[in-house]
Amino acid sequence: MQNEVQFAGFGGQGIMLMGQILAEAAMQQGYEVVWIPSYGPEMRGGTAYCTVVASDRPIGSPIIRYPKHLVAMNRPSLEKFAPTVKSGGTVFINSSMISIDAGRDDVDVIKVPIIEIAKELGNVKAANIVALAAFVSRSQVVDFELLRESVKAKFARKEKLIPLNMKALEAGKKAAMV
Amino acid sequence: MGKVLMKGNEAIGEAAIRAGCLNYFAYPITPQSEVAEYLSRRLPEAGGVFLQGESEVAVSYMIFGAAACGERVFTTSSSPGISLMSEGISYITAGQCPAVFVNIMRGGPGLGGILPSQADYMQSVKGGGHGDYKLLVMAPASVQEAVEMMMSAFALAEKYRNPVMILGDGLIGQMMEPVEFPDALKAEPSNKDEWATNGMATRNSNQRNLVKTLYLDPEELNSHNLMLRAKYAQMEQEEVRYEAYNVDEDYSLLIVSYGTMSRVCRTAIDNLKDQGVEIGMIRPQTLFPFPKTAIYDAAGKKSCRAVLCVEMCMGQMVEDVERSVSGQRPVHWYGKCGGEVPTPEEVMEEVNKLANP
Fold this sequence. Notes:
The complex is a heterodimer. Chain A is of the alpha/beta class.
């Protein structure tokens, strides 16, 4: 069994971090893991993306053209990558910034207004954690408890941000259930 | 220590420290700058020295100086930077000093691009600088393997008193994978008192050690080159490493591929197996010495009709593969070199073309 998740958005939306947190949780769950960033010239200004592959056997190709899941944080990312998602996969849409649909009826689509939710929690910077929580609780690519531990570990050096991010996890999980 | 999720570049830096190397001199270049970033913080903590040189040429001679003094030392760079270092590498090889060079390849020629490439194969295995010399070249296919190769590289460099190169591509440096670090190694070259200019008082000896590269007497220079040649012959006897994949099956085609590209091929081979097509693969882990015998034997298998060399460059390894196959089977090439890594699907298409002509 292999799961591939593509995270995509603008530089500065916390795309790389979301992928790293998921990769860490998947590793803790005992999966083989690869995290690949986009480090090409598109990093400045345009779309930033990273891919996480988690598998129960050694990962061959780290290059994934057709991922099982997509987390789209802005419209260009959704337009570019929604057609590549495998049938039966998940497409997460940041509906605070994306007004269009995935254009797919063979995938599970989740739309969450993550910026509004993060603002309500008191810090718009937590929007990516809201998105990650919503995506994970719906797609179940990793155990939610391990995701929680992984977020804590990532913010270990900025301890005062942990309560905010724990709230963001719960809010995201709740939003995905609606 | 359990597994940690680390970027290849950072893991390479950490592996060097655990291999007892406390000297790192470098000049930043994408896609390997994280090694310098990581070590600028981590080396002082570990009691080591991080120095950014004013250029790659300068760095190569800083390496020469530290290596000549019997210190474990290494540097990392990417393609254009390695070209600049090649002069120093030639001198270090002539001076018979151990050192480790890591090349996280990007696309070329010239400034090329910053995305993954394997276009420095020839430069690495045939000697990028002037003169009759070779490097022992190892090519990792994962972050874990990069760590293990890094940790063995220093001892190999010291065994042969010759630079060792770790040849990765941009993805090996940029991707994160779980790694487990082997136990730390001891910090000093054991044989250094025999050759290093570390001071007679330090080694409590009357023997004067000299590191030099100038031999004006033709007979002396010829003997020097014969001695270097003998070392490379010994490497060919003792240091060949490769991985054979799916070779117990009756495969119709043999792939030869290394590094990131070999992982893509592995997925292609797995997918083809599901379709009932058997393909074998030899993945060289050392590019010099090259696994000639393994490739000769694998290509000679009765079921095998052809050999396909898959690389992220314009077929630089094909000559070595042809030399190894020795005319038993036709050798084909597939690859890309703009920075885009071929997908398993593209490799499968190429394999199918050759399998069903």
